[in-house]
Task: inverse folding
């Protein structure tokens, strides 16, 4: 069986091509909402029910999403349902977001700090990181007290870890080697 990322790629690319002619942000939000609906355990149970027709599944989905579905979005959803690919929606949304970031010259920055950061601290950190990574960053900040101090930043496949926990682990390794 093919990996979910392989299955999701052509759908994400197709949605991205359609969205480029319209509103990328709206499509990104819509795909995020559709992914959340598809990932819900009750919806997964309904999707996998062989007694439900494609039209009934479409009705459930469109009922949950409300008026957010344009004609193109309805066609996209029907295509996913018809091909049995609703379970790929979370990965489709991730890949779409990656394509959108690449087009905008941006990236997501997952910032983990030992202590809560103020808006000013986040803005200063992001400005410094944007110079280092040379892209516009969209920060997501979380707090993890296990870091003891410092921050850990993940941008794509690059990691910048200045946490006290990592430094202590490095010292322990050096002393026991």
Result:
């Amino acid at each position: 069986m093919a990996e979910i990322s392989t299955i999701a790629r052509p759908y994400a690319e197709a949605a991205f091509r359609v969205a480029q002619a319209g509103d990328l942000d709206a499509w990104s939000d819509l795909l995020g909402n559709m992914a959340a609906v598809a990932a819900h355990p009750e919806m997964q149970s309904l999707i996998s029910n062989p007694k439900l027709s494609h039209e009934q599944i479409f009705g459930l989905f469109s009922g949950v999403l409300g008026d957010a579905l344009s004609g193109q979005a309805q066609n996209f959803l029907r295509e996913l349902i018809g091909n049995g690919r609703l379970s790929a929606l979370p990965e489709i949304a991730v890949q779409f977001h990656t394509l959108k970031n690449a087009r905008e010259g941006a990236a997501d920055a997952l910032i983990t700090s030992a202590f809560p950061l103020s808006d000013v601290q986040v803005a200063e950190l992001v400005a410094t990181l944007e110079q280092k990574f040379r892209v516009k960053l969209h920060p997501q900040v979380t707090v993890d007290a296990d870091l003891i101090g410092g921050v850990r930043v993940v941008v794509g496949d690059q990691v910048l870890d200045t946490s006290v926990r990592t430094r202590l682990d490095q010292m322990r390794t050096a002393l026991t080697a």
